[in-house]
């Protein structure tokens, strides 16, 4: 093995590792007063990592296995990493103002985000069960600390504890499925597993696949393993919630795609039924669960569950078109999530305290016209109402399902999306038609305004100008995944 070539291929992971360790030392020596400088350095490291991986996406034909088949550097991994790094940068940009208000901005925050991004990068490149688990746990360990980052906030401590306990349970389920897979397939490598499953499959292997998918379903917060999502999203600090709703979601979904379409790709009929159930259940539970919510962060949590269900429709298709549709939807979903949670961060009263109750947003459009318009556009886009760009994400996944012959699944998904439109429209109704509550009177930071403007422009009708480029990149990434299979 040419180790020089290997180290060049994983340069992004090396950069994040070195930057994380170096900034950890700086945090230890300089203390919390250097937190802003460390955040800026962390953003620079993530930008550098994105620059390193971008050529792998542009040159879709180049794909290499490293460390004796433990990881794969290809266009699929590069696409997912770019979304992950972008989400992490957004989480770093919005954090200082939020944490400084409560005097909790600590130097460890950007370091934890860097190590979480490193773990997620390993996850999306993993082609072995062992590498998969290492990346997953590196991300999870950082995430548990981030959820409980506000030491003096009971909700944050509760969110961290719930996430840790349920995450440990999910890891145990996943490990059990991995051990069964190794026992029946005789290999932990995806290529070896795929070869072992090319013939008739045993009942034990069916059980193994079920347990692996159950463990991964927790990470993507798909029903019935979604129970942690509303509590953690509400209790965790809002910048952390933004991070949880975007980067780990992309990483876990990409990992699920690689495991099902690569390792278990020869047994589609075994896991397809599980994915269809999880998809429909997530769409329905996410929509119905959001209807009675009074907290905007909990509503966005159920919205996240709902969107996971739509994304899984593309996976159920088990075709290159379905995979490309999932990747297109993920890119649009990240932009909608960033817009939604940045808008929540901008909802503050005159003392700078966050305003999270939907009722307190009544009549916001009377004195915060631009912010209200951005929130309304985000809600319409999440609902999939044209001409907002969120419609395109739903359209491509439904189209892939119809092309794969899953017309009933697409029909039920379209019908269930109408339920989701109700609670999104409820927020818009409160903003524009209720009597003003005059609660949101605090000023917004420039970083929040810039991020909200960029994300809103992307999900606006102007986003359709990117459909051709985004579709081409998604198709390139999906082709790399199926080439590996």
Overview features:
two-stranded antiparallel ribbon, single chain, 2 strands, mainly alpha, 485 residues
Describe, in plain words, how this protein is organized in 3D:
The chain is mainly α. The chain has 19 helices and two strands. It has a two-stranded antiparallel sheet. The model has no long low-confidence stretch (mean pLDDT 88).
Secondary structure elements and their pairing?
Layout: H1 3-9, H2 11-30, H3 35-58, E1 64-66, E2 71-73, H4 75-101, H5 108-125, H6 129-147, H7 154-185, H8 190-196, H9 203-219, H10 229-235, H11 238-263, H12 268-291, H13 296-317, H14 320-345, H15 369-383, H16 390-403, H17 407-433, H18 446-459, H19 467-484
Antiparallel strand pairs: 1-2
Helix pairs in contact: 2-3, 2-5, 3-4, 3-5, 4-5, 4-11, 4-14, 4-19, 5-6, 5-11, 6-7, 6-11, 7-8, 7-9, 7-10, 9-11, 9-12, 10-11, 10-13, 11-13, 11-14, 12-13, 12-17, 13-14, 13-16, 13-17, 14-15, 14-16, 14-18, 14-19, 15-17, 15-18, 16-17
């Amino acid at each position: 093995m040419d180790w020089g070539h290997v180290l060049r291929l994983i340069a992004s992971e090396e950069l994040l590792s070195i930057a994380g360790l170096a900034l950890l030392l700086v945090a230890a020596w300089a203390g919390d007063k250097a937190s802003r400088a460390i955040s800026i350095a962390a953003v620079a490291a993530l930008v550098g990592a994105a620059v390193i991986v971008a050529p792998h996406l542009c040159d879709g034909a180049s794909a290499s296995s490293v460390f004796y088949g433990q990881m794969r550097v290809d266009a699929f991994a590069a696409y997912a990493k770019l979304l992950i790094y972008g989400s992490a940068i957004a989480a770093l940009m919005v954090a200082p103002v939020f944490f400084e208000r409560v005097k909790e901005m600590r130097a460890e925050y950007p370091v934890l985000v860097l190590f979480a991004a490193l773990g997620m990068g390993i996850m999306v490149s993993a082609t072995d069960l062992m590498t998969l688990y290492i990346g997953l746990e590196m991300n999870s360990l950082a995430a548990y600390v981030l959820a409980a980052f506000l030491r003096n906030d009971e909700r944050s401590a509760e969110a961290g504890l719930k996430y840790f306990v349920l995450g440990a349970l999910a890891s145990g389920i996943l490990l059990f499925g991995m051990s069964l897979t190794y026992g029946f397939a005789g290999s932990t490598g995806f290529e070896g597993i795929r070869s072992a499953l090319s013939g008739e499959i045993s009942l034990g292997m069916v059980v193994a696949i079920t347990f692996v998918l159950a463990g991964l379903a927790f990470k993507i917060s798909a029903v019935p393993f979604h129970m942690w999502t509303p509590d953690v999203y509400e209790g965790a600090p809002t910048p952390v919630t933004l991070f949880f709703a975007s980067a780990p979601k992309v990483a876990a979904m990409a990992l699920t795609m690689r495991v099902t379409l690569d390792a278990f790709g020869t047994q589609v009929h075994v896991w397809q039924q599980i994915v269809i159930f999880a998809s429909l259940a997530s769409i329905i539970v996410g929509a119905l669960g959001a209807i009675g919510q009074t907290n905007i962060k909990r509503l966005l949590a159920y919205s996240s569950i709902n969107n996971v269900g739509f994304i899984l429709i593309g996976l159920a298709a088990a075709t290159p078109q379905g995979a490309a549709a999932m990747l297109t939807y993920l890119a649009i979903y990240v932009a909608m999530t960033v817009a939604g949670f940045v808008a929540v961060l901008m909802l503050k009263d005159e003392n700078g305290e966050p305003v999270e109750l939907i009722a307190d947003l009544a009549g916001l459009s009377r004195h915060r016209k631009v912010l209200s318009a951005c929130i309304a556009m985000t809600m319409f886009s999440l609902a999939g109402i044209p001409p907002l760009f969120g419609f395109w994400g739903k359209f491509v996944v439904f189209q892939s399902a119809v092309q794969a012959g899953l017309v009933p699944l697409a029909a039920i998904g379209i019908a269930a999306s109408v339920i989701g439109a109700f609670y999104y429209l409820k927020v818009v109704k409160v903003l524009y038609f209720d009597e003003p509550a005059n609660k949101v009177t605090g000023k917004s930071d420039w970083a929040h305004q810039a991020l909200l403007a960029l994300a809103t422009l992307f999900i606006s009708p102007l986003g359709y100008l990117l459909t051709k480029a985004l579709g081409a990149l998604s198709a390139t990434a999906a082709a790399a995944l199926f080439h590996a299979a």
